[in-house]
Amino acid sequence: IKKLYDVGEIKQWPIKYYVSAVSVGLKNDTILLDLDFEEDSMIHTDMNFVLNSNLQLIEIQGTAELGYFSRLQLNSMLDYAENGCQTLFKEQIKILAPIWPPEIQSP
User: Fold this and answer.
1) Calpha distance 27→64 (Å, rounded)
2) SS3 per-residue string spanning 39-82
């Protein structure tokens, strides 16, 4: 993409936002971010969140494997997901900064 952009084959950078995804789990009243396989297999509630760098939601998927979860717990899981995605956006910027245009650099 950068090569095409640099030589003028494409006039506008086609990628508007960074995108990241995290898993969040709820076990009893404890929220876990970025579940590994073992945690995921024993979790009470399993959620996946995909956000762009403006913290707009692209996808939410979740299942209460054992029982249910409350709206307050959902909001807390979303807060954890946003924090996790923001950490991933910072890492993406570090890696992609040399090739992405400056307007895409800060989420």
Assistant:
1) 10
2) HHHCCCEEEEEEEECCCCEEEEEEEECCCCCCHHHHHHHHHHHH
Evaluate whether 77 touches 57 at the Cβ level (below 8 Å).
no
Residues 29-52 pLDDT 10s: 899 999 888 888 889 999 999 999
Q: CA 41, CA 5: separation in Å to the nearest integer?
A: 44
* Six token digits for residue 21: 């995804």
Question: Going by C-beta distance under 8 Å and a sequence separation of 6 or more, which residues neighbour residue 65?
Answer: 43, 44, 45, 46
Query: Is residue 21 pLDDT above 80, yes or no?
Result: yes
